[in-house]
């Protein structure tokens, strides 16, 4: 069972995406004409109207006031560009590299390091080994928030890359919704429904249902994906001052003929092979299926006009069933006639269960003639994972014909007895506190601290027979930040934090590596333009991670990579502009440049592109108001893997055109990879070709 472990990421921490606008805050509103007693009542309809999730922070900070670089990908952008899966969506994010090196597992990078933390509404899980299995359907979310830099205040553990926070859709104040039907290349068929219903005459209770089903083939030989998702949520008033929210998400994702591992391109003579973009190592009998059920309960209570308490509980249960096929070489290279590959079939079944509970108190207080904010919280999470593998004795290591081969050259084994492949437990208890102090009218200071207790027991998520014997780590990490208002529209900031991350990787002797420790610092300037419609950010960052697990070799006997700890430093800068130029034109542009060095001061992690550029523009035509057009381009510099593949710098472009047939009906055409560029979507672990040009048509209808 290769699933991410649940870890703490309560809504009380400082570093995540804050709210886009000041009116996007959850507020306590008095009734319009009420007695003194009624004036303290939380009006859920008013609160629901302006409320959006606070993501990973309970301090009511706007993006401009948060001493960290933050990007937001909203639902309008996801819909317009047809980004229904989380991998496609994250490619729009500044500084985010999507390393899709298999067809069902992906790693994300920011500032040169793997993103280890994924959240939903501020509660999250670490991605073991930096891997995310399967994709989330983006139709469930109002937006995706991307925080670059250290995330220690989010979880008490983390690294210097960043955090991804998915913000769920919540109930609204009026009945209505929409249905979207899509069809496109590779037999794409998709149907999605989003409907909101006010449940009581007084409007205090409402519910929302979101359903999406997608079925499609692929440009990769024999690969087929099917994903069904349902999300339901209800919220409403409890007494005069309480708001209760209850929701669940169920997703069933099935893959036929997935790739486990990727292509081997190096040849024995030192050249690189080149194949058709459809090339696959998989066999027709392979499958990779993931099911997950996520349920949550939130209760928020307004203690006064300035203080609020919040209790959140989240349970996630995942199931995995896979029959996979791995093609490997003994030397890391193909023979000159493209032979030299051997087969390794694998079957496993497993499940994970994760529980997170978070309680926090946040509010404002007056001192020395100014208002200050503070949050204090306590969190506890538990995660269990267990997987069994099936014996395939006699089938492992059989030679394969010259690549590319067909999907029926390696028969499915007669699977034998099962054995435990992974059986692990983990829990984290965390006490955290953060405060934003108004030192002067212009100068604000932010200070935070985390005290965590981490316990792990059992085997690694990848098994291997090496057990964690009740490993325990206690750690206290500080966070310091400051902001200074140069003008009402321009702000300078700086931040510093410790970072700490337990590691699942093992050394050449099979022992788990010690936790990574390090420091992260960032300074920058943020400015608002065009009456606060456009936000620009310039940031300079530096991070050092000591003892970071770094791949050191591959053992052909155990078929496992082994790692060694290295001190790695990342330095660079980011520039981003995001917002609206006018009522009809939205723009987002981001550029990241970095340098990665190892303990010897020389370049390291050569597979990470050192420069990335994202540009997105959407506009409504003044001469034809019913028409909207948009383009999104992504450019990255060259990258390579020593002893592996190389990818030159490349540019990709996606475009869309949408036309309002009526006030309720809109048709949209999407074209991805407009110039049909052939490229490798990763070089870190082997290689897989990216998608060629594809097109789809969607019809949206408001209900």
Give structural notes.
The protein has 703 residues and is mainly beta. The protein contains 4 helices and 37 strands. It has a 22-stranded antiparallel barrel. Strand 25 and strand 26 (534-555) form a beta hairpin. The longest helix is centred in the first third of the chain and has 7 residues, at 44-50. The radius of gyration is 25 Å and the shape is globular. The model is unreliable at 1-40, 50-58 and 461-466 (pLDDT under 50).
Task: Identify the notable features of this structure and list them briefly.
single chain, 703 residues, mainly beta, 37 strands, 3% helix, disordered N terminus
Q: Please tally the helical runs, counting DSSP H or I stretches of 4 or more residues.
A: 4
Indicate the multimeric state.
single chain
Please compute the radius of gyration using only Cα atoms. Answer: 25 Å
Shape assignment: globular
Major sheet: size, sense and barrel closure? 22 strands, antiparallel, barrel
The portion of residues assigned to helices is under 10%
Which blocks of ≥5 consecutive residues have pLDDT under 50? 1-40, 50-58, 461-466
């Amino acid at each position: 069972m290769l699933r991410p472990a649940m870890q703490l990421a309560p809504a009380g921490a400082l570093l995540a995406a804050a709210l886009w606008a000041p009116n996007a805050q959850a507020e306590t509103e008095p009734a319009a004409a009420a007695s003194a007693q009624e004036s303290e009542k939380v009006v859920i309809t008013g609160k629901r109207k302006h409320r959006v999730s606070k993501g990973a922070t309970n301090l009511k900070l706007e993006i401009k006031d948060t001493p960290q670089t933050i990007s937001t990908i909203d639902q309008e952008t996801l819909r317009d560009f047809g980004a229904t899966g989380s991998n496609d969506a994250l490619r729009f994010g500044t500084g985010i590299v999507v390393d899709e090196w298999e067809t069902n597992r992906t790693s994300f990078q920011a500032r040169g390091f793997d993103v280890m933390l994924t959240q939903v509404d501020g509660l999250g899980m670490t991605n073991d080994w930096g891997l995310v299995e399967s994709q989330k359907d983006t139709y469930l979310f109002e937006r995706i928030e991307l925080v670059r830099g250290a995330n220690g205040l989010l979880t008490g553990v983390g690294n210097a890359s960043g955090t991804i926070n998915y913000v769920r859709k919540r109930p609204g104040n009026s009945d209505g919704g929409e249905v979207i039907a899509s069809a496109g290349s590779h037999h794409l068929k998709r149907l999605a429904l989003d409907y909101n219903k006010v449940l009581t005459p007084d409007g205090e209770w409402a519910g929302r249902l979101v359903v999406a089903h997608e079925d499609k083939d692929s440009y990769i030989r024999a690969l087929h994906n099917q994903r069904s998702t349902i999300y339901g949520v209800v919220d409403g008033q409890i007494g005069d001052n309480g708001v209760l929210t209850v929701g669940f998400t169920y997703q069933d994702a099935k893959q036929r003929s997935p790739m486990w591992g990727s292509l081997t391109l190096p040849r024995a003579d030192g050249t690189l092979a080149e194949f058709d973009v459809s090339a696959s190592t998989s066999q027709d009998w392979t499958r990779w299926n993931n099911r997950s059920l996520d349920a949550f309960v939130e209760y928020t209570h307004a203690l006064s006009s300035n203080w609020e308490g919040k209790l959140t509980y989240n349970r996630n249960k995942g199931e995995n069933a896979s029959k996979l096929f791995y093609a490997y070489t003994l030397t890391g290279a193909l023979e000159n006639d493209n032979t030299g590959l051997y087969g390794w079939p694998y079957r496993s079944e497993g499940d994970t269960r994760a529980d997170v509970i978070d309680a926090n108190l946040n509010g404002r207080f007056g001192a020395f003639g100014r208002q200050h904010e503070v949050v204090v919280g306590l969190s506890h999470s538990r995660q269990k994972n267990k997987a069994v593998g099936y014996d395939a004795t006699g089938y492992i290591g059989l030679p394969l014909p010259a690549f590319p081969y067909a999907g029926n050259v390696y028969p499915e084994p007669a699977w034998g007895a099962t054995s435990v492949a992974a059986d692990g437990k983990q829990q984290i208890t965390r006490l955290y506190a953060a405060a934003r102090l108004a030192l002067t009218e212009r100068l604000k200071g932010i200070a935070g601290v985390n005290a965590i207790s981490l316990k792990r027991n059992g085997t690694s998520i990848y098994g291997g027979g090496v057990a964690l014997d009740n490993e325990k780590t206690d750690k206290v990490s500080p966070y310091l930040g400051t902001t200074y208002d140069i003008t009402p529209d321009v702000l300078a900031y700086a931040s510093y934090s410790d970072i700490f991350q337990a590691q699942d990787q093992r050394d050449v002797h099979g022992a788990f590596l010690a936790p990574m420790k390090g420091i992260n610092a960032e300074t920058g300037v943020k400015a608002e333009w065009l009456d606060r419609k456009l936000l620009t950010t310039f940031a300079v960052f530096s991070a050092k991670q000591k003892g970071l697990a770094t791949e050191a070799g591959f053992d052909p006997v155990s078929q496992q990579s082994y790692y060694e700890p290295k001190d790695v430093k990342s330095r660079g800068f980011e520039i981003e502009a995001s917002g609206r130029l006018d009522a009809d034109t939205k723009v987002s542009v981001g550029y990241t440049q970095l340098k990665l060095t190892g303990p010897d001061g020389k370049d390291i992690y050569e597979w990470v592109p050192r420069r990335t550029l994202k540009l997105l523009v959407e506009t409504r035509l003044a001469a034809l108001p019913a028409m909207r057009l948009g383009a999104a381009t992504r450019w990255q510099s060259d990258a390579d893997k020593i002893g592996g593949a190389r990818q030159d710098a490349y540019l990709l472009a996606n475009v869309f055109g949408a036309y309002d047939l009526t006030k309720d009906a809109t048709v949209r055409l999407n074209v991805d990879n407009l110039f049909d560029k052939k490229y490798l979507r990763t070089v870190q672990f082997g290689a897989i070709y990216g998608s060629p040009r594809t097109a789809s048509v969607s019809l949206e209808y408001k209900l």
